[in-house]
Design brief:
Blueprint lengths: L16 H16 L4 H6 L5 H8 L7 H11 L3 H11 L1
Helix pairs in contact: 1-4, 1-5
Protein name: HTH cro/C1-type domain-containing protein
Organism: Arthrobacter alpinus
Length: 88
């Protein structure tokens, strides 16, 4: 299965505690690494509107989203999950 397709299952609903924690870990990495929303949009499959919805917990995270964020932020996806695990 191509992980870039939109028919893939979501990880969790947008308000699920783990999803919220992963988004917070992504935001923290963006702050630490000085990566802007424009950088993420330019280097991923996400539009500006979709990115905002995901960062505001209004749209579910997909597996491809996690991997795209990790690639752009220069971290392993497991780092985002570990940070989320520490927050929950």
């Amino acid at each position: 299965m191509n992980i870039a397709t939109t028919d893939q299952p979501r990880i969790f609903s947008p308000k699920h505690p783990v999803s919220v924690a992963v988004v917070e870990a992504i935001k923290n990495c963006m702050d630490v690494r000085k990566v802007s929303k424009a950088d993420i949009v330019a280097n991923s499959h996400l539009t500006s509107r979709t990115l905002d919805k995901k960062l505001k917990h209004k749209s579910p995270l997909m597996v491809s989203d996690i991997f795209a964020f990790a690639r752009i932020l220069g971290v392993c996806p497991s780092v985002l999950f570990a940070a989320a695990d520490n927050q929950t």
